[in-house]
Design a protein that fits this description.
Length: 201
């Protein structure tokens, strides 16, 4: 039984890995069942034997792509020695998001999913919203820890700063992507860096 379960899990993982870039680039509506069968080499029955429907595949793919981004960010945060540098990781990591092979194909899954699923898919919209809430909480925790450590000045509005950082990063990615000018993202991330540096005592 354990071997059967592990085989099922391997199949699910294979489906996620193989279709992650397709969903992230084409979106839920733009991805067809034939896209999934062609990419994986599996039959419709095999795919839907592991996932209830296309929506469930898309939700699992979002989690898979988001996890890739989270791991990349966390690895750099753990290496940083100051809270300033930990916050700067967001600017540095997203600066290389379109160059790093460890990042999801197609760009930021939060931005891609949020734009498409705004009013069309509640499950994916909630996934994207949850990701932003967790991201915001992570930034707030780093700022609060920096204040307690005496590294950042007291009285900082963590809600305002965290939302501004997220809005700048996601907005910068969107502008760079839609205009085809990566330098636009560089400019925006420079502003993120200035925002973080302004938190110091």
């Amino acid at each position: 039984m354990e071997n059967e379960l592990s085989k099922a899990e391997r199949t699910r993982q294979f489906i996620l890995e193989t279709t992650a870039g397709i969903f992230n680039k084409k979106g839920y509506a733009g991805t067809s069942l034939s896209d999934l069968t062609e990419a994986t080499g599996l039959t419709k029955g095999s795919i839907y034997g592991n996932f209830k429907n296309k929506e469930e595949v898309a939700a699992a793919v979002f989690d898979y792509n988001l996890d890739k981004v989270r791991k990349q960010v966390q690895q750099h945060i753990q290496k940083a020695t100051s809270y300033h540098d930990k916050l700067m990781v967001y600017a540095q990591v997203y600066h290389t998001f379109n160059k790093e092979k460890s990042f999801p194909v197609g760009g930021c899954p939060i931005l891609n999913t949020a734009v498409e699923a705004d009013d069309t898919n509640l499950i994916l919209k909630e996934r994207a919203a949850g990701a932003i809430v967790r991201w915001k909480r992570s930034i707030e925790n780093l700022i609060n820890s920096g204040i307690k450590a005496g590294e950042f000045r007291p009285g900082i509005d963590t809600n305002e700063i965290s939302l501004a950082m997220i809005a700048l990063i996601e907005g910068g990615i969107m502008i760079a992507k839609v205009t085809g000018h990566p330098s636009s993202l560089d400019t925006v991330l420079k502003t993120v860096g200035e925002l973080v540096s302004g938190l110091k005592q």
